[in-house]
Design goal:
Length: 392
């Protein structure tokens, strides 16, 4: 009996080829389009081409001769993604909706809907791979980087669980992007030449501050420039055998000078350059810190400003996630891994140090733009081992 797979058809070339390959491999394939966003309380629904994408997905399904339907997950999406985003920005953190969408929608709500249709698996067009090991007679699932180094999307799936991975298939993970387009063209798929989507629809189509201001009220505040020589950090002793973790301690008004005004500290993120609208500097200004309580933005001039770099980061215990539960560190344990703090960032050598309070990641080299609210993910070779929300 054929295994049944529900494919999340997005209307793009990647998911189209995923469905095509699965059918060629002998699976019973069903295509479903997820309508994740339409909210008239923020006036951007006309900017989202979800209707065009849905039509493209339907045309692909018809061409492949597979059943197709569209499901509306916008209520769940608003509650789990959009409302969370607003709350995080309000608190001065910068969330990653792409990671959350995979954890909360595609491999949770969507997976549940697929199981109700009798699916054995769900499949997406992500550039990543799944491996399987056996430990103590039980399968252990691995989340592996995609073969295309320019498209590896394992980072976006860094919050998946063993249960979610057990049901997941990633048909294009072994392919390069040009190979995917070539397969689509040979198969006669209408999406073969379609441009890739630019992130989440409601973010990709509007200026983010404009979007946020529809829920978060603008509030005038000071922009303070912190000079290079200011004592920006203090050292936290994590362990005598580990380098110290730097954290901001002296980002205070008396350290710098007021150089401008902003419309709300919650609209800015660490490392941001654009949107400050402050001129007169030989080197560009960057955001090196925000304080949403005092409504202050701290800036530094130049790519080499020490405020842009951190030696490490901290993840609270409640925000630590191990894809490989069998490799989870216990309090007092340390281990060397590779890690990244944003999509497509080159992996960096680091040491993980688990304490009762949480996890410290100490990098061999200081990292630029470590941002609270974003996800850090750690790898062993090409396998993603775990991840967590950056607390500080």
């Amino acid at each position: 009996m054929k295994k049944r797979v529900v494919v999340g058809l997005s209307g793009g070339v990647d998911s189209s080829v995923a469905a095509y390959l699965l059918k060629e491999q002998g699976y019973e394939v069903i295509g479903i389009f997820m309508k994740n966003w339409h909210d008239d309380s923020v006036t951007i629904s006309n900017e989202c081409p979800w209707l065009d994408d849905s039509n493209d997905a339907m045309i692909v399904a018809q061409h492949l001769g597979i059943p197709f339907q569209a499901i509306d997950l916008s209520v769940e999406y608003k509650a789990r993604i959009v409302d969370y985003m607003f709350a995080e920005y309000q608190a001065g953190r910068t969330p990653n909706p792409d990671v959350l969408c995979n954890r909360e929608i595609k491999f949770d709500v969507f997976l549940e809907a697929a199981i109700k249709l009798g699916a054995d698996f769900v499949a997406t067009g992500h550039y990543c791979r799944k491996g399987t090991l056996e430990k103590n007679g039980k399968p252990v699932y691995q989340l592996l980087a995609g073969k295309d180094p320019n498209k590896d999307q394992s980072y976006f799936l860094c919050q998946l669980t063993q249960a979610q991975l057990s049901r997941a298939l990633f048909p294009i993970g072994e392919l390069l992007k040009p190979e995917v387009r070539a397969i689509a063209k040979e198969a006669g798929l209408t999406t073969a030449e379609k441009k890739d989507s630019q992130g989440l629809c409601f973010i990709g189509k509007v200026h983010l501050p404009d979007f946020l201001q529809q829920r978060l009220q603008p509030k005038k505040g000071k922009v303070i420039e912190v000079p290079h020589h200011a004592p920006v950090f203090e050292t936290v002793v994590v362990d005598e055998d580990l380098p110290g973790l730097s954290k901001p301690y002296a980002l205070q008004p008396e350290l710098g000078k007021v150089v401008g005004e902003h419309n709300g500290a919650h609209f800015y993120t660490i490392g941001q350059r654009r949107g400050l609208h402050i001129g007169g500097y030989e080197k560009p200004l960057f955001v090196i810190g925000t304080d949403t309580t005092k409504n202050v933005i701290y800036t530094g001039s130049g790519e080499d400003h020490p405020g842009l770099y951190r030696k490490g980061l901290f993840i609270s215990t409640s925000d630590i996630h191990w894809v490989r539960l069998d490799l989870a560190l216990q309090a007092g344990e340390t281990k060397k891994y590779l890690a990244r703090i944003r999509y497509r960032q080159p992996l960096e050598n680091c040491t993980l140090h688990q304490t009762a309070e949480g996890l410290y990641i100490i990098f061999d080299r200081p990292q630029r733009g470590v941002t609270p609210g974003q996800f850090a993910a750690w790898y062993e070779g090409e396998e993603l081992i775990g991840s967590g929300v950056i607390h500080q």
